[in-house]
Amino acid sequence: NNNYIHRTERHTRALAKFVRLVELCRQAGIGADNAPREGDAVTHLEGEITCTPEFQTLVSACSDDPFPTSLHFVMFLPNIMTLCDAEQQATWLPLCRDWKMIGCYAQTELGHGSNIRALETTATFRSEAQGGMKGGEWVINSPTLTSAKFWPGTLGKTANHAMVIAQLIDGEGKERGIHNFLVPLRSMETHELLEGVETGDIGPKIGYNNMDNGFARFDNVRIPRRNMAMRFAVVNEDGKYSKVTGGKGSDAASKVAYITMMQVRAYIIHLSNESLAMACTIAIRYSAIRLQGYNADSRQARNEFQVLDYRQQQYRLLPLLSASYAIYFTGKHVLARLKEVERQLVAGSEKITKTISQDIHATTSALKSFATTFTADGIEDCRKACGGHGFLVASGLVELSNTYLQTCTVEGDNQMLPQQVVKVLLKLVGAVQSGDEELLKEYIGTDMEYLVVILVSLMEQGGEIPTRSTFSFSLDSSVRDFRDVPNLLKAFQHRAACLILDVAIELQTSMSTATEQQAWNDALLSMARASRAHAAYLLLRDFANGLEDEQVKGSSSCLGPSEHKVLTQCLTLLALYWMDKFLDDFQQIQCISPSSVPQMRGALLQMLTELRPSAVGLCDARDFSDFRLKSALGRWDGDVYTAIMDSARNDPLNTESSAAGVGLGYDESLHKLIAGGVGEYHKGVSGTISRL
Hints:
By secondary structure, this protein is of the alpha+beta class. It is 50% helix and 9% strand. The protein contains 23 helices and 13 strands.
């Protein structure tokens, strides 16, 4: 039971599981037919198991803990595949495939996280003539305490190599910005640390404690010149720096490093759907079992309600369940889009413009910030919805929440990312204001395209805050109007457009009396609202498009008419739930009048009623095993109370007691109090020690 295992044991046990998984994959021949195909964006080798669907399925099915090795195939391998040239890949990928080289991605430092331009780790070139190794070398240094790499997963004790992000200083002593360097950490024979390298685990965390998030400091660590990732930039033997010329040297292609980072964000977004769905499965199954409050309408005496039949419980849980499906469709879409962009970038295509790269950056930043915050809060709401038993670690929700919490910070803090989103969206506002038709054509096919027409119409109104939406629900709107998905999507489009235009106007107005930095700082709260609005629309749009795509497939779709109908109910409910939650935004832009709110909430109530019979089925459809849920409350067979009591009886405080039930600590301490008389009061006997 993980709840009673020290993190050291959990870490070593997770390593043993992973090694056994690799053994089984090799025995089963997984990856044997995984030969690279012509035109593949990413080079992979025959026999590479981590990029196969079978491996991903096995990881999900057999691991009740994230593996300490996961950053190797989530970040280290993709960096080699996308940023290293063919010769480097030919050298390093076979070592990775055969698990001789296990790596991590070392970017974050003790003193810097989101601001990667301020990273302090240095990579200084030294030529052979200057005493460097043959062909030249890099000297990796951590010049300050705050330059120590801190937080990278797999770094502490597992990895023997790291893809280190450092400031490149070329042979002329000129700083060339951050670049990637493959730095050996440990011997591949003995796993002992190499000279000049100090690494270790950073210590216990709120969750994710089987992962050896680590620190690393480098003291004049020498690596070959060719250990710099050289697909898009090179340094020759004399230390001269240059960008790779040709199509692959284009401005967009040089952003491939960021595409790799965006892929990690996309994975975080996509995996959020599973974490939220698992929490919903536990809470909804338990709410269907738990009885509370008598049904006054029932003819049977003492007939109790299922907790899930209470509107409050439905309002707490059913929108979260709906959101898990929305995040699934969005994550799937974003990952597919990124893979295609990566394929074109690596192939040297010039179709991926700077606008497209920025659009993907804005999309992944907005979705990562909104989806992970919503999921983290949603998991905690699911725990609270389970009442007192939700406070038990045996509920499964405590560890699920603690493990998930790190996603709100990793790969971009959720409070900082909206600024990056708004920077991109403001460029679109400027393009619309300019009226440059050629410039606006660059936004065709991007996730921002929906904003163009709306912004044009909004700008015709003038420039006062708050911007008034050019779409609104009429004063006589009915409940049916609020159940219309196209209407709901339009409302979310206009909300995003109005709020981003408000930010632009606010900044322009503020800068007339304040510095640019102060104006930007004052607008941060408005930026957060605009980013959240953009993300919410993208989630709803991708949910709707995903359902439409499945409908187009017809008989080949995994969704029949009944499933499509229920998921459309989920889409509608989620849109109405967010409309209710962020009602102030919709009223501010005059998209919904106060008199229409009862109709909107009436539609929301109808959706809760219609979705209630399908709630448990929507959870069961995710097919989470009891092994994965690790929950006494969310058992598939519904035998909740037996599981809770079994968990209680198996606690070491009970199992390690004597046969007569005498608990731990009685002989050492409690006996003195109860039978030894140390707590007895004796009237007239004064104390024998000073109170001072």
